[in-house]
Amino acid sequence: MEDDLPVNVREYQELAKKALPKMHYDYINGGAEDEYTLRENVAAYGRILLRPRVLIDVSKIDMSTTLLGYNIRSPIIVAPTGTHKLANPEGEVATARAAAACNTIMVLSFSSSCKIEEVYKRRDVSATLVRRAESLGFKAIVLTVDTPVLGRREADIRNKMTAPGLANLEGLMSFDDDLDSGGGSKLERFARETLDPSLSWKDVEWLKSITSLPILLKGIVTAEDARKAVEAGAAGVIVSNHGARQLDYAPPTIAALEEVVKAVAGAVPVLVDGGVRRGTDVFKALALGAKAVMVGRPVFFGLAARGEAGAKHVIEMLNKELELAMALCGCRSVAEVTRRHVLTEGDRIRALL
User: Fold this and answer.
1) What is each CA distance from 166 to 15, 85, 175, 275, in whole angstroms?
2) CA–CA distance from 107 to each of 78, 96, 236 (Å)?
3) What is the SS3 assignment for 232-260?
4) Which residues does the UniProt record annotate as the domain FMN hydroxy acid dehydrogenase (predicted)?
5) What is the CA radius of gyration of the chain?
6) 196 contact partners, CB below 8 Å, separation of at least 6
7) Does 242 participate in catalysis according to the annotation?
């Protein structure tokens, strides 16, 4: 029944928790170690206040924006998250259809459970995946730079989470049938065979040498690395802590965003992911300088609860919430969302000095 649909992301999360096996829900929702950063990714948005402007004609709201020269309906796009078939049998195909129905961008993870034709350590494998993406009309490459090794995800260790099959690596890499890592999660040995602890800035240069597609670096949380990304020729920077699944006590992404934006100084677009649960969160990120916001777990929750329709509804809800926030803050377009529309913890502290 349409009347029974969830009205926010948190309600979709509760439905997903009920729908999924505990092992799979913990894998999707869990973070590293104490999960401090996992909690802070969400909580940090709650510490930012809005500064609405009034008596402005907001009868027409335009949420459209451009990213890398492409027009999109709103600045909300789907983050690269792997193994969507854990949430729904149609996996990333259903997510891609939901994103397309909302006229937005989906970033397909190499660890997706569907092949890129349907929607690491080995440079030959990476090069093959890049060529396949180019031939299929993908518009950009996102290089995740914060996973030289796998973070310690204790829920997965307790659950003895098994490594999901990755369709994009079929025929390119072979793995032992027994991926048990001797007491840890079975993901850990899988990660040792696919992740590369020697990954460095020279690999960004190598990736640029094999593709003409723009390359965005995902996993930047400091000004120092943001400047190096620009120097390395990145077409964009994504402020991300990998959904708090890698290094616990890394800063929440919304708290790191402004530092990165200032360091980049307009040279390339800055995106952000992690902790977004409301359209007001998207508004806050835009005010702090993000060009677009990537959502991962919320789409996963929608997919687990109601399949493609749920993923689509989650994106639509966030869009409607963003539109409402813009109207109530007196912003008729994304360009009118400015730094003066938010009050951060730092602003309040500086006001007392």
Assistant:
1) 26, 10, 11, 26
2) 6, 9, 14
3) CCCCEEEECCHHHCCCCCCCCHHHHHHHH
4) 1-347
5) 20
6) 120, 121, 148, 203
7) yes
CA–CA distance, 325 with 321 (Å, rounded to integer) = 6
Tell me the residue type at 249: Y
- Token pair, residue 188, equals 């850990």
User: What are the residues facing 272 on neighbouring strands?
Assistant: 239, 293
User: Could you read off the pLDDT of 294-353 as tens digits, one per residue?
Assistant: 999 999 999 999 999 999 999 999 999 999 999 999 999 999 999 999 999 999 999 999
Flag whether 279 is marked binding.
Answer: no
Query: Which position has the token pair 């310690």?
Result: 152
Determine whether the annotation assigns residue 245 to a binding site.
yes
- The model's pLDDT over 21-57, given as tens digits with 9 standing for 90+, comes to 999 999 999 999 999 999 999 999 999 999 999 999 9
Set 84, 242, 313, 341: catalytic member? 242
H or E element: which one contains 135? helix 123-135
Rounded to an integer, what distance in angstroms lies between the CA atom of residue 344 and that of residue 122? 43
d(CA 305, CA 295) in angstroms, rounded, equals 16
CA–CA separation, 244 vs 274, rounded Å?
Answer: 8
Q: For the whole model, what pTM was predicted?
A: 0.90
Residue whose pair of structure tokens reads 């965003």 in the numeric block = 257
User: Alpha-carbon distance 90 to 178, whole Å?
Assistant: 26
* DSSP annotation of 84: G
- Name the token pair of 278: 């409301």
